[in-house]
Amino acid sequence: MSDVMDETALIRAAQKGNIASFNRLVLNYQALAYNVAYRILGDSEAASDATQDAFLKAYKALAQFRGGSFKAWLMRIVTNVCYDQLRQRQRRPTDSLDDLLTDPDHAPVLINGHEGPEAHALREELNRAIQACIGTLPADQRITLVLSDVQGMNYQEIADVMGISIGTVKSRLSRGRARLRDALLVHKELLPHAYRLHSE
Amino acid sequence: MREPQGKHLADEVISSYIDGALAPNETAAVRRHLAECGVCAANLRTMRETVLLLKELPQVACPRSFIIREADVMPQRPRPSGLFVFLRSATAAVAILLAAVLAGDLILRQAVPSPLAMPQTAVVREAAPAAPSADQQLSVPTVPADTGAAAKLAAAPSPEMTQAATLSRAGTKGTPPTPTAIALPTHVVEKAVVATQPPAATAVPASAQPAAAPTLTPAQPRTAVAALAAPSVTPTPAGSERAASTELVEPSATATSDGATLTANAAETATAIAELTPPPVGFGGGEPGAGTPTPTPTYRPPTATSTPAPSATPTPLPPTPTRTVTATAPPTLAPTVAPTPTAVPATAVAVAAVPPPAPTQAPADASLYATPSPAASWGPLFRLAEIALLFIVLGLGALTLVSRPKR
Question: Which residues partner with A110 through β-bridges?
Fold first, then answer.
């Protein structure tokens, strides 16, 4: 509650032109924004640009925020920027897994201090494989999947962020999951043995 | 795996079942179907593992801070295009040039005097040279010997000779006046030239040249000359003596026949010269005919009947060179010359008094601007430059406004 009140005060101050207040909001949401951008774009440099651009647009459009979930409102800006970048890059809906796996930019720094070196290596291999498979999905399925399964948003939040109905969210999500599953089954050799999907 | 009977569960139902988003009755039905359908059960398993893999993806650390700066969010002026910068610079440069041209024109106007003050000088300059030309023609018939007496006087000047020379000059036939003062009629000049030529049949050894002496009576000239001459010179009867030291020329008996004609002509010339030439200073008083010499004898112009006194030269003089005289006076002077001798002097005086007009008198307007000042010629150039630069500045200014970046 206090956090919400603080957030509301910050938003009001930022709306009045207080850049420092807005930067406090940036610090609260920059990790989320960057990760979303990274999972959607699959590239750390592209994700940084998209995140910075999104925050600048958010500050300039802050006067249009009428209340509600600031998180959802900010994420909508981030996803729209990611959409624009995907269109500019003219990335195909399905990229080559080999290109994604060999690109060094697709090896971000993972936050997990409890794993040992071997586990860390396995994790790194798995992450690269999953990210590669996510890159093969269409933009709308990719974003829905990332927001839901990567970021943990519920259907309503995803609907608010993307500006679609809940039914659309369910449809896009189910298709994305099924498609990603199929990609992982086809390239199961990319997955560690322990993480290989079992088929009946 | 048991093959399901009927339809299989849709991926959306399975996905919603995984998320717990189905209604309770739907959930029960799916569970019953999954118990009976192995395919759907497999789909459910693989889908659930996929979702788990996505949830287990670690968070990626931010490579940097994404806080914003005031410079990033302040409204920035659009950068001017290169064309706008060029047009703006060009407009300023041309405007400065226009200001410099205007300043230069203003300074030039104040420094240079008006060309309207020039014409009088030009007219006078052009008129002046013409005057001597007409007089020169008339003054050409300079008697070179000017009677032998004049030449002798020039060779051996003495006070008495100087006076006599002046007198002889005044009365000498054909002696021209000073070129700048007297303009003789043509026929007078011709007669003077003829009179100066020595008579061909003259047997007089000494006085072969009828001098252009003043026409004097036999007695009067001698008396006058004697008065003018040194006191030692005594008048001698005409025809028998010669005044060795005088410049009088006595006509010989044999030359009377020719001399009569010459006399008449010489008389006219002498009359003209006498009228035109002021009497020399110092010669005044003394009645002609008085035998006693006076310090200031009065010089009386000779009459037409008086006979000239031929010049007596102790030594023979070289023949008088003949000179061709331009008989034709300037056209402008001809109408002014009267045929009668009596009218000649007045006309000649009138002619002399009036400076001859310029033979080619240019129009007044042209003489006014005959010598324009160099600075005046720059005026039209300055006007033209000012107008051209003004148009250029206006055009560049309009283009600059059009190419201005939009805010």
Answer: B60
